[in-house]
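Quick check before the chapter quiz. The format below is the same one you will see on the exam, so make sure you can read both the input and the output lines.
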Amino acid sequence: MPQSQIGLVGLAVMGENLVLNMESKGFSVSVFNRTTSKVTKFVEGRAKGKKITGTLTPEEFVQSLEKPRKIIILVKAGAAVDAVIDQMVPLLDKGDILIDGGNSHFPDTIRRTKALTEKGILFIGTGVSGGEEGALLGPAIMPGGNPDAWPHVKEILQATAGKAPDGSPCCEWLGSDGAGHFVKMTHNGIEYGDMQLICEAYNLMEKGLGMSAREMHEVFKKWNEGVLDSYLIEISRDILAKADEETGKPMVDVILDTAGQKGTGKWTSQAGLDMGTPIPQIAEAVFARCLSAIKEERVAASKELAGPEAKFEGDREKFLADLHDAMYASKICSYAQGYQLMRAAAEEYGWDLNYGTIALMWRAGCIIRARFLDNIKEAFDNKPDLANLLLDPYFKDIVTKAQGAWRNVVKTAVDLGLPVPAMSTALTYYDSYRAARLPANLLQAQRDYFGAHTYERTDKPRGEFFHTNWTGRGGTTAASEYTV
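Here is the expected output.
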């Protein structure tokens, strides 16, 4: 029997669809799953008649692959990935390649790359974005790890990936050890922010303007034809047009308002804290989901806590136009924060990230696919060391022009008592980033007062630290650390 060109472990939704995708591009694939009945069901069902070989033991699976063996692991992040690696490694030869295609936390990928390199196994940690449909038709694929592995898998992964409008594959090598999974994690953090912004716009339209699901569908339809064109706006448009078969009500109205999460938004927020990089919009989107989860508490609180009873009495069409601009400006801030986080990580871990390439990879297949990613690519092509997207002439002009609308939307939301944590945080981030002087001077004085943490002076060179004996009882000894 001829050997397969690549193998995949883990026949859940993503795994099945990725296998069918690779086979449709001309590659032969072997599959294995811990629950072997899934293998049998797959090869006798969706995979029947295709160049897909089902195997029922790890040994049979490994023997069915041509050398150097290339194995994609698509199982739950964490211990399950390590379990599959431990199962496969004794059966592999030096130079074989393991590819973790799940949502693994990037420190795990750094650890696995190092450990497997020492055993002669080439390891790749790659983010795969696009959901079920993306996996089948062409996802965004973000590989990093041992660079020696890339030449062996480049053809398969780029053929399997989604294609941007210009035909280029949404897959390119990102860097060593955890680079690929870090970029995917950041993608997911931006995704959290985008989804929260859309939900805030929906809430303002529904509760603030009293719009029906059908009316909101028309607004999202219009938005998706302009600069806000994106996968998430597109599916929101479609969701708002869907009716529940049981009740006839809009489907969105019968879904309970408690959101779930798998952890990647939390990891992104934690990375921002660890690296001292401000990504408040992403963190607020995570906290918004946490708040949604305490449904019973919120229902009880709604009967006890008062808020504004104001009703919107302005020009509805004007407000919708303002909301559009506020959405776009806030979206730009979200991506600006994500790119600043990647820049900090590149410095921290020694990754040579190409930010224009990352934008290109996100133009198709993935959840945050959006028209304006072309503009992000151009921004970094024009200035690879761009400090912040807000400083690019194109984006600076948009945000400057949107300010009036943006501030009006946030003020209106406050007056109506409707929460807009992502949109208002985006505006606060913008106002903070453009501030030549922030009140951190008082904060640093407070830290020096109670903890002798020292401070720098406006009339002295940066890097010189001072301490004041604020009470007359403290003496001259200062703490050795300036930052915490």
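If your answer matched, good. Strands lie at 6-9, 29-32, 52-54, 70-73, 97-100, 122-129, 140-145, 175-176.
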